[in-house]
Amino acid sequence: MRKRMRYNVTTKIGDTYYFQNPNLFRFAASTNVTEKYDYRIWTNINQRDLNWAASFSKSFKISDFLENTMKIGYQGVNKFRSLDVLEMLPATRSYDENPSNSNRSAPRIMTNYAELMKPENLGNGNGQAYYYAMNTGGRISSGGMNNHSAYIMLDQKLWDKLRLVYGARLEFFDLENRQEQQILSLYGPDALEDPKYAYRLTVGDKQTRILPSINLTYQITDNFNFRTSFSRTAIRPDFRETGMFAFLFF
Questions:
Q1: Backbone φ and ψ of 19, nearest 5°
Q2: How far is CA 33 from CA 28, 47, 80, 177, in A?
Q3: Distance from C-alpha of 18 to C-alpha of 127, rounded to nearest angstrom
Q4: Residues 10-30 pLDDT 10s
Q5: What is the pLDDT of residues 161-209, one digit of tens each?
Q6: pTM of the complete model
Q7: DSSP letter at 95?
Q8: DSSP SS3 for 127
Q9: H or E segment at 36?
Q10: CA nearest 247: which of 25, 42, 29?
Q11: In this structure, are residues 122 and 116 in contact, taking their beta carbons and an 8 Å threshold?
């Protein structure tokens, strides 16, 4: 849970400022809600990871100066992740509850949050506050990731001096981060069919790549080796990096 509870200036006596007005949300001034007003945010992240792998290696000798080890293998990863958010704003009424003063702003509240937000003190009357639930809460995103890779590698040792390790990895990657519910909460059901929001509904990456590698080591002396290598790798996005929203703790 993350919260922000602040107070506005109540008065100034001499050179000292006194803060006793809770920074409460009011519907009459509801712009820039997240930046301007205080809040409590609860988040729930549910993630399931499945990993499995299989490998096989076989050594064989072609001649007295050439030793070989062949390795083959497969690895699979499956992930599911969902993010749910509940954001509550401490709020109070905008106008006086007295019908004869209905065009006047409600009286200022001058107390601390601990007292104001006690269950027995909650309400929508003058001098009271309550928790207002933001409509952007609920399921923010849900997605899945599948990664399947197979590899083959040959480890060769020649004349007890030269070692050559080379091979390739075939990798399939598919990630989908679905965020339809957030678009629905922010802009309504028509937005799901609106082309300008299409890029935000499901964000991800789907590719199949061949990733080669080669490593050469030459033993110059018993205590000194020369080594050079080449490889191609891929950095894959994660759920956090494909989220089309600004949010802490994801």
A1: -115, 110
A2: 12, 30, 31, 26
A3: 19
A4: 888 989 998 989 999 888 765
A5: 899 999 999 999 999 998 888 888 878 888 888 888 888 888 889 999 9
A6: 0.71
A7: B
A8: coil
A9: helix 33-36
A10: 42
A11: no
